[in-house]
Write a structure and sequence with these properties.
It contains 16 helices and two strands. It is an all-alpha fold and about 350 residues long. Strands 1-2 form a two-stranded antiparallel sheet. Helix 3 (about 30-50) crosses helix 5 (about 80-90).
Length: about 350
């Protein structure tokens, strides 16, 4: 069980660091709310540990050590680490899931860019769908179809975040939109990073990204009915709150460069109310055939890992080890080349 003092720290971290999830969590049953907030606190800690540090490679390698310690039952003496170690023990959290998140953070540390939408989905699977799969584990849901829809929701939410943060990311030298989209729009990525500005071409890319997100939000809804009834309002709330961010981007004329889409407290309350109504409707609505849609190829390894019911590494983790080896080499100043078997791209330190 999570120590109440550690839980208080986790709740405070989410209240200040992720207002959208904190709002949605109010609709979760207490038995799920505390471990969910603790899980998000650990994930938030991991994200901030990389994003806010000048030496990002060292930060990721340190996170790997903290994850090893948590799975060994000897977490670092910090509230989020102790709470996450309790989650591992109580829910048999498959190790491949937080390791996938760690790999996504490593890709961030390397400044990796994505040539295609599929590669961007692979990144989103790691930094967002992995969290969705872990949420299913907290709900004691190990059904492959439900897990696939949770992963759809994770990718949709991450694509929405990317659409919202284009300008902010560009000013930090980060670029997530597929490079082939820049080619099609006739924009040089380096030129955009040097002088970010809204344009018709950029609006077209954001429209395309949010349309992909909307398709995945629609796919994800079929999985809600497969969740425990008490959990459905909170998941619907997360879906509507994050989709609402996309609506704000559209309302701003797809200008995410000079402005950042924000949602008001009144809007959040409206979406929470809608979530309650929709969750009630799922009690009587027939099950959608969309529940049986195959998982996105980029998320299939997460579905397999979460369904396995064992806190173990999977075969996919060889790619994580290769990524960590690359980070270690960068950290010690040794140059090398790595072929990424998933993306098929060559990256040089």
């Amino acid at each position: 069980m999570i120590d109440p003092r550690d839980m208080e720290h986790c709740v405070a971290a989410i209240r200040h660091g992720s207002r959208s999830f904190h709002a949605a969590s109010k609709l979760l049953p207490r038995s799920l709310r505390d471990p969910a907030l603790a899980l998000y606190a650990f994930c938030r800690l991991a994200d901030d540990a990389v994003d806010l540090q000048p030496n990002k490679s060292e930060a990721v390698l340190r996170l790997q050590e903290r994850l090893d310690m948590a799975y060994a039952g000897r977490p670092q003496n910090a509230p989020a680490d102790r709470a996450f170690a309790a989650i591992i023990a109580d829910f048999e959290m498959p190790r491949a899931l937080p390791e996938a998140l760690l790999e996504g953070l490593a890709w961030d540390a390397m400044g990796r860019r994505y040539s295609t939408l599929s590669e961007l989905r692979a990144y989103s699977a790691r930094v967002a769908s992995a969290v969705g799969a872990m949420m299913c584990v907290l709900m004691r849901v190990r059904d492959g179809d439900a897990l696939a829809r949770a992963c759809d929701l994770g990718v949709a939410m991450q694509l929405t975040n990317i659409a919202r943060d284009v300008g902010e990311d560009a000013r930090e030298g980060r670029l997530y939109l597929p490079l082939e989209w820049f080619d099609e729009a006739g924009i040089e990525p380096e030129d955009f990073l040097a002088a970010p500005h809204p344009s018709t071409q950029m609006a077209g890319m954001l429209h395309r990204l949010l349309r992909e997100a909307d398709d995945l939000y629609a796919r994800s809804e079929a999985g809600v009915a497969a969740l425990p009834r008490a959990c459905r309002p909170g998941i619907y709330a997360a879906r509507h709150v994050y989709a609402g961010i996309g609506h704000q981007v559209r309302g701003a004329g797809y200008d995410s460069v000079t402005r950042r889409a924000m949602t008001s407290t009144r809007q959040k309350l409206g979406w929470l109310s809608l979530a309650m109504l929709r969750a009630g409707a799922t009690y009587v609505m027939p099950r959608s055939a969309m529940i049986y849609a195959r998982p996105l190829p980029e998320c299939a390894f997460l579905v397999d890992a979460a369904a396995a019911r064992a806190p173990q590494r999977g075969d996919w983790s060889d790619t994580l080890y290769a990524t960590m080896a690359q980070l270690k080499a960068r950290d010690t100043g040794r140059g090398f080349a790595l072929i990424d078997g998933d993306a098929g791209d060559r990256y040089r330190a």
